[in-house]
Amino acid sequence: MKKLGIGLIGSGFMGKAHALAFRTVGGVFDLPAAVELEILADTDTGRAAAAARSFGFQRSTADWRAVVNDPRVAIVAITTPNLLHKPMALAAIAAGKAVYCEKPLATTVDDAREMVAAAKAAGVVTQVGFNYLCNPMIGLAKEIVDSGELGEITGFRGIHAEGFMADPATPYNWRCQPEQAGGALADIGSHIIALARYLAGPIDRVCGETITVHQERRLADGSGSKPVCVDDQSHCLARFASGASGNLSASWIATGRQMQHAFELYGTRGALDFTQERFNELRLYQAGQPRGRDGFKTITAGPEHPDYGAFCPASGHQIGFNDLKVIEVKRLIEAVCGVAPAYADFREALEVERVAAAVRKSAEQGRWVPVAVC
Ligand SMILES: NC(=O)c1ccc[n+]([C@@H]2O[C@H](COP(=O)([O-])OP(=O)(O)OC[C@H]3O[C@@H](n4cnc5c(N)ncnc54)[C@H](O)[C@@H]3O)[C@@H](O)[C@H]2O)c1
C-alpha cells in the first residue's frame, strides 16, 4: 500500500487535533494509502520533542523548513498562528508537497491569492481546516438543499459565537494582533462564512459592521497592557448570488456561549435549523404538514449519514469534534490519492477571505460592498 509521510508544524490546540486525526484515520476508514507520522516541528527542540513523543511522530525539529523539505514527507500540515501560514505553505508547495493548512488561509486576500496561484502552478493538493463542513449532519443539510426538497432558498442566518474573550481580563494573545488577521471575523467568522457558502452558495454583497468592545487587554506576563484594534464581534447583512438574503455574525465575546456555530436556512417548501452545540442533530421543517401538528423534526445522526457509520454502527451514539478532523483528514488523503477532489481547498478558502474582506471594507466605508471588488 502507498505510504504518505506526514509533517506537522505546530503542536497547540490544532496541532494536537491534526495529530490525533492522522493517527486515527486508518483505523476508522478504508484508505487508499497508509499514513506515517514522520516529523513534527515546533518553536523549540524540547517542545517539539515532547509533542512528537506524545502524538506518535518519529522525529521532531525546531526548524519548520526541515519538515517541508523532508523527502519522506508527502503532506505538510500547518497549525501555526495565521501569519505563518503563507510562508510555510509556499515553501511546502515549492517542495511539491500537499498542504493541509488551518483557517483562516492567510492574513490578507492578496496573500491568499498568491497561495492559490502557487498551489495551482505546482499542481499540489490543498485543504483548509473548515472542519465543521465535515459534519455528517452538515452533509445531510447540503444533500437536502441540493435535492430541491426545501424549494427555492430564500434566507440564511448564520452565527459563530463563543465566549472565550468575553472576560475583559482575558489577556492579549496572538489572536488580537492585526498582523495575524486577528479578530472574531477572521478567527471564527471564517467558519460561518464557509458554511454559508457551502449551503447557500456564493455571497454577492455584504453590509457589515465590526466592533471592538474591549479596546485594551492586559499582557499575560503582567508587564502592562496593549490596545486592541481587531474586532470582538462583527455582523453583516448578506445577499447571496442566488438572490437569497440573510445575515452572518461572529463574536468571541458571547458571554456564556461555548460553540454556537449555528444556522437557520429557509426555503419556500421547508427549513433547516442547526447548532454545533448539538451537532449530531439536524432540525428539518417540511411545509404542508397538517395545521396544529406542524413543526420542526429532529433528525439524529446515524450510520445512514456518511461518514458517521465509519465511527459507530448505531444511531444517536454521537461523534465528537475530533472525529470531524478525522473525516477531514480522510478527505485529504483521498484527494492526495486522486480519489476525490479536496474541499475546502485553497481556492475555496480564498473565497471565504474575500467575503471577510468585504465585511471589513463595508464596515470602514459604511455601505454595501460587492465581494467581487475584494
Ligand atoms: N479549525 C478549527 O476549528 C480551529 C480551531 C482553533 C484554531 N484554528 C487555527 O489553527 C491555527 C493554530 O491555532 P491554535 O489554536 O492551535 O494555536 P496555538 O497557539 O494553540 O498553537 C500554535 C502552535 O504553533 C506553534 N508555532 C508558533 N510559531 C511556530 C514556528 N515558527 N514554527 C513551528 N511552530 C510554531 C506554537 O508553538 C504552537 O504549538 C490558527 O490558524 C487558528 O486559526 C482552527
Q: Which ligands accompany this protein?
A: nicotinamide-adenine-dinucleotide
CATH topology (fold) name of the largest domain: Dihydrodipicolinate Reductase, domain 2
Spatially, the strands of the biggest sheet line up as 16-15-14-13-7-12-11-8-17
CATH homologous superfamily name of the largest domain?
Answer: Dihydrodipicolinate Reductase, domain 2
The appropriate CATH architecture of the largest domain is 2-Layer Sandwich
The tally of structural domains comes to 2
- Number of helices, where a helix is a run of at least 4 consecutive DSSP H or I residues: 10
* Strand runs, count: 17
By secondary-structure content and strand pairing, the structural class works out as alpha/beta
Give the strand content: 25-35%
Low-pLDDT parts are none
Topology pattern, helix = H, strand = E: EHEHEHEHEHEHEHEEEEEEEEEHHHE
Backbone CA Rg? 21 Å
Describe this protein's structure.
The protein has 374 residues and is α/β, with parallel strands linked by helices. It is built from ten helices and 17 strands. The strands form three sheets. The chain has a nine-stranded mixed sheet with strand order 16-15-14-13-7-12-11-8-17. A six-stranded parallel sheet has the order 3-2-1-4-5-6, with helices on both faces. A two-stranded antiparallel sheet has the order 9-10. The longest helix has 20 residues, at 346-365. It is globular and about 65 Å long. Bound molecules: nicotinamide-adenine-dinucleotide. The site of nicotinamide-adenine-dinucleotide (NAD) has 21 residues, from helix 1. Nicotinamide-adenine-dinucleotide (NAD) binds at residues 9-15, 41-43, 64, 79-82, 84, 102-103, 129, 131, 187.
